[in-house]
Amino acid sequence: MNDKLSRVNAEFQDDGTPKNSATESIQHSKTSTQHSCATHALVPKLRFDEFNAVYSSYHLGDTITHKGGTALESFVEENGTHKFISIGSYSKDGKFIDNQQRISLNAKSESRLLEKNDLVMVLNDKTKTGDIIGSTILIDSSDSYIYNQRSERIITNKELLSPLYAWFLLNSPKQRKNVFSVSQGGTQIYVNFPAVKSLKIHLPALPEQEKIAAFLTAVDQRAEQLQRKKTLLQSYKKACMQRLFSNAECGMMSDEFQHDETPTSATEPIHHSKLSTQHSLRFRQDNGEPYSDWEEKKLGEIATFSKGKGISKNDVSEEGTTKCIRYGELYTVYTETISTVFSSTTLPANELVMSRANDVIIPASGETHIDIATASCVIDEGIALGGDLNIIRSNVNGVFLAYYLNNAMKHKIAGLAQGSSVIHLYASQLKDLKLQVPTKGEQTKIANFLSSIDTKIEQVTHQLTQTLTFKKGLLQQMFT
């Protein structure tokens, strides 16, 4: 875990996380693990080296003052002056969800006005899961908030408990589990705050609280930065596809894409040429000359069609020797390009339908018309293709074709599908689908361009997942 902390700290610096006192102190901190034993029962598994004192034990009620909420839904108004914290405002991780509900001060709501560094805990979950029970929001800005019934305002004794540390503590897995343990109810889960007040908490001295809170804040900032980057890249990809494929002849209607400005800060500048022809974004040949205009073709004129062969769930195994793709995975695992196959089967290869490199696959059945219009290109040959898959085999660049079908043609393909409870899509329907096809060279440039954006999105998604997993581990090990 110590090495992992060092690696993440270095990654923050390399990726340009804003330098501040919190991140700078983290980058120069060493950590060590200490395990609980009989003489040191109040020591966390993970802490900073400069602190070694045993934690002090309290009941939560010894460290706070509190005040319950009151029913204010009837005062919600469109142009209210204050943000309104209702049950829908709580996320599982204690982040405020702005559901755009607003409320103004009046005789009843003024007493429920929150101040900076207040915390507010939700005591009710309308579901049976209780996922948000105990979720606690920290008021860390100058915005004005008013809280509703089934919530409790918490003000920490700042000589004992830092508000920011309290926020991380109360949202830690162990403390949330403790709150859930004193909850009640069946169809709705709720907890009485006196029971929460009686829960034990273990606190380090304030300097250590502040160090821990600063470290975890830096991890949160890292996650937020990565999420913003991912959102920008996704918007950038969407805007590029709109301009690459937008054309009345190729079936893309203006309402199928949002007309976002290209967020150039999301990635390095893309070098391409724009031509005022059929499409608003075009590439040039390597010699600088324009490619010829796209030609209209029916899919049946440029491709042949076949079907995969059934591979049941029981036939999929980690011990399987043949990589395989089942139709349901197109909805859950894969995007337009399948370069890494995640499933394997124990069935003999000679009993299966195997891919050729560049095959494009589309589900032959699904739950909704729009979901069934999902195309992916299989990069490698020798991959077993399961039943309920339409296999499209052509000389068109398969990656380009998958992006084109999955975006420009999505609504037209959805319109071809038939059925109600189970939707079916047949090769006979796909054959008459009219496409606009560029030259081979432009197909390749479009495919490479969009694939490069997807690669960046995948990298950022992986980094975001790692950061969130890392934070979860910290919350489990830095609080006793």
TrEMBL record:
A GO molecular function held by the record: endonuclease activity
Chain positions covered by the region annotation Disordered: 1-33, 258-277
Domain of life: Bacteria
EC number: 3.1.21.-
Keywords annotated in UniProt: DNA-binding, Endonuclease, Hydrolase, Nuclease, Restriction system
Enzyme class: hydrolase
Name the UniProt record assigns to this protein: Restriction endonuclease subunit S
Organism field: Rubritalea tangerina
Taxon lineage: Bacteria, Pseudomonadati, Verrucomicrobiota, Verrucomicrobiia, Verrucomicrobiales
